[in-house]
Give the backbone structure.
Amino acid sequence: MATNVNGWIVVGGYVRLATVLESAWNQHNCQPLNVLGGLTREGLTSPMKAQSGKKQRKAGKSSSGRTRRSSGNHNSPRGRNEIIEAILQATEELLPKHNPSEISLRQIAEAANVNYSLIHRYFGTKESVILTAHERMLSKVGQRFSTVDRLEGNIGKLFKMSGENVSRRTLLARAMLDGADPHLIQHHFPIMRQLIELLRKKKSKTKKPSKYDPEILAAFFSGTAMGWFFFEPFLLASTGLDKENKDEVHKQISEMLEKTADLLC
């Protein structure tokens, strides 16, 4: 039987416990305490009913969360090929903007609009995703580069390719400035390997080849080309070349590189 004592709903002998708990609770400036599943100043709710209400509220939140996630993934890629493509595309877009070591799988999953676990399923690790994405970026340049079978007369073409590959150049610059391991963003170096072979081929046809190995020559020419495009705005402005036709400037640089190759090989 329930009675009202000083505003408290009393059931059996629980009034004493409720009063003590309320006193302790109020000393800490807390809100009125709900004890015994539903014993409050506002009235009595049975423990089972209170528990049922909690479950309903929890279920409502869970349902709401599922609804939000479902609507957020309304345009999610479906099927293995679509998911892999979305993951790689998202990674390619993130790489020029962030140090590879700072990119998380959750960032990639969010950008790709896929479930986090799917990246583990199809790639396993973050390193695997980054390597695959970067190698795919390089393959586009490599396909064009592979059409060059000799260095003579093609240095201008190679110089132009270097200038057009903005994403790779930005990725490399950011990664190197941040101290990233080059092997994290690229497992092998097919373009550099091919340049070395072209230089070796050129040296083999030279009557008096220089003392410089193809590897050091490849590093020198690559550094010259990438360095130019990294700092081109500054170089043009500081020398007054920004008032000249840029295509003409590039043509002259290509001619200088061609003559340097003849001299150093």
